[in-house]
């Protein structure tokens, strides 16, 4: 029953798996999960992990990605997602929700929520979506303090602390590389460089930084969409597809709703809908029925 209502794999084991994956020589693919059911689908298909995007969580609340969400909201959604999957889950913790002490508390809350890792970025508060113009970054020394506070608060040494730098689009790639090196020295386990443009940019960054690197393959942004195989051949250790599932779902929902509005029926959409039987399969409905039968189908002994 344990693996029915929640994942069978412990948070500690998921963190071990995440770290092992980062040093395996195989790229770790983390699609974004906008809800727990999508995380279960990501696992079933065979990906190595799931990602919880701050931009997606904001959008789910009908808010822009400008730092309006709270630690409680983000950790709560992260816990819901991590609970149902045996995969490691990486979560976007924005700038740590405040000053260095807040970043430290964020680590403890995310650990308690069962996440395998988080990333902190070097933007100023309030942050902006990483692929928009008009971003600003804090001085590197401020981000180093943010990271050191986060690392010091970690209780499980396998919890992955990823440092994201948004400096490439503001100060240039060379400055972003210098920041990445400083962040690695501050204790970051993984570097996420945001909004590089071309394959050559990704290669330059990889050649200059010694610790594991994460690439962001988000659609409609500044980065060329490189395949996982190309990124792996460059030496990247992880890739996220943060908003893909939300974009797919929202496009389908809008098309369908417009047809229902115009036609007065959904009958022409059935071949584009997930069937009830497939939903029940993902929810493991039959196993719940089996559990009910085992609990409630019994006979009383003669002494009762």
UniProtKB/TrEMBL annotation:
<dbReference type="GO" id="GO:0019629">
    <property type="term" value="P:propionate catabolic process, 2-methylcitrate cycle"/>
</dbReference>
<comment type="similarity">
    <text>Belongs to the isocitrate lyase/PEP mutase superfamily. Methylisocitrate lyase family.</text>
</comment>
<keyword id="KW-0456">Lyase</keyword>
<dbReference type="InterPro" id="IPR012695">
    <property type="entry name" value="PrpB"/>
</dbReference>
<dbReference type="InterPro" id="IPR040442">
    <property type="entry name" value="Pyrv_kinase-like_dom_sf"/>
</dbReference>
<dbReference type="InterPro" id="IPR015813">
    <property type="entry name" value="Pyrv/PenolPyrv_kinase-like_dom"/>
</dbReference>
<comment type="pathway">
    <text>Organic acid metabolism; propanoate degradation.</text>
</comment>
<dbReference type="InterPro" id="IPR018523">
    <property type="entry name" value="Isocitrate_lyase_ph_CS"/>
</dbReference>
<protein>
    <recommendedName>
        <fullName>Methylisocitrate lyase</fullName>
        <ecNumber>4.1.3.30</ecNumber>
    </recommendedName>
</protein>
<dbReference type="GO" id="GO:0046421">
    <property type="term" value="F:methylisocitrate lyase activity"/>
</dbReference>
<comment type="function">
    <text>Catalyzes the thermodynamically favored C-C bond cleavage of (2R,3S)-2-methylisocitrate to yield pyruvate and succinate.</text>
</comment>
<keyword id="KW-0479">Metal-binding</keyword>
<dbReference type="Pfam" id="PF13714">
    <property type="entry name" value="PEP_mutase"/>
</dbReference>
<dbReference type="InterPro" id="IPR039556">
    <property type="entry name" value="ICL/PEPM"/>
</dbReference>
<dbReference type="GO" id="GO:0046872">
    <property type="term" value="F:metal ion binding"/>
</dbReference>
<keyword id="KW-0460">Magnesium</keyword>
């Amino acid at each position: 029953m344990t693996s029915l209502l929640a994942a069978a794999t412990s948070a500690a084991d998921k963190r071990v798996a995440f770290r092992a994956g980062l040093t395996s020589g195989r790229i770790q693919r983390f699609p974004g999960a906008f809800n727990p059911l999508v995380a279960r689908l990501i696992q079933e298909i065979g990906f190595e992990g799931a990602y919880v995007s701050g931009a997606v969580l904001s959008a789910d609340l009908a808010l822009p990605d400008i730092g309006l969400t709270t630690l409680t909201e983000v950790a709560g959604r992260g816990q819901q997602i991590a609970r149902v999957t045996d995969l490691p889950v990486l979560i976007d913790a924005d700038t740590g929700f405040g000053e260095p002490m807040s970043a430290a508390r964020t680590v403890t809350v995310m650990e308690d929520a069962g996440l395998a890792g988080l990333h902190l970025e070097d933007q100023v508060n309030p942050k902006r979506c990483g692929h928009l113009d008009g971003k600003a970054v804090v001085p590197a020394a401020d981000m180093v303090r943010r990271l050191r506070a986060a690392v010091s608060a970690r209780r499980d040494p396998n919890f992955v602390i990823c440092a994201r730098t948004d400096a490439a689009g503001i100060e240039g790639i060379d400055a972003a590389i210098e920041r990445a090196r400083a962040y690695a020295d501050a204790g970051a386990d993984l570097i996420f460089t945001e909004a590089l443009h071309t394959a050559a940019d990704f290669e330059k960054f990889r050649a200059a930084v010694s610790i594991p690197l994460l690439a962001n393959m988000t659609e409609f942004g500044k980065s060329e969409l490189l395949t996982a195989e190309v990124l792996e051949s460059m030496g990247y250790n992880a890739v996220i597809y943060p908003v893909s599932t939300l974009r797919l779902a929202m496009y389908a929902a809008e098309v369908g709703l417009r047809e229902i509005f115009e036609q007065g029926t959904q009958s022409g959409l059935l071949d584009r809908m997930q069937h009830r039987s497939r939903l029940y399969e993902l929810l493991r409905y039959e196993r719940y029925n089996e559990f009910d039968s085992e609990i409630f189908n019994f006979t009383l002994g003669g002494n009762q």
